[in-house]
Amino acid sequence: MGLDPLLLEILACPCSDHGELDVDGERRLLVCRICGRGFPVRDGIPVMLLDEAVPPGGSGDAAAR
Fold first, then answer.
1. Nearest-angstrom CA–CA distance, 50 and 26
2. Is residue 62 in a domain?
3. pLDDT tens for each residue of 29-60
4. What is the DSSP string of 11-63?
5. Rounded to two decimals, what is the model's pTM?
6. What domain range is 14 assigned to?
7. More exposed terminus of the chain, fewer Cβ within 10 Å: N or C?
8. CB within 8 A of 56, min separation 6: which ones?
9. Residue 61 domain-assigned?
10. Contacts of 24 by beta carbon, 8 Å cutoff, 6+ apart
11. Any long-range contacts for 34-39 (C-beta under 8 Å, 24+ apart)?
């Protein structure tokens, strides 16, 4: 996905636990290590909104939304 490693260090899940994020390049998501929500990356920009998150275990390409 080509996200800046420094950006990934400072981004956190907007859930109440503010978990760190892992990159899921295949689904183009940033996935919270705590709650499991996936946040889409559109045009290289992480969309860190709970309303836009893919639920834990959710399938599908978030970029197609």
1. 21
2. no
3. 999 999 999 999 999 999 999 999 999 987 64
4. ---SSTT---EEEETTTTEEEETTT--EEEEETTEE---GGGPBPTT--S-GG
5. 0.83
6. 5-56
7. C
8. 35, 36, 37, 38
9. no
10. 30, 31, 38
11. 37/13, 38/62, 39/13
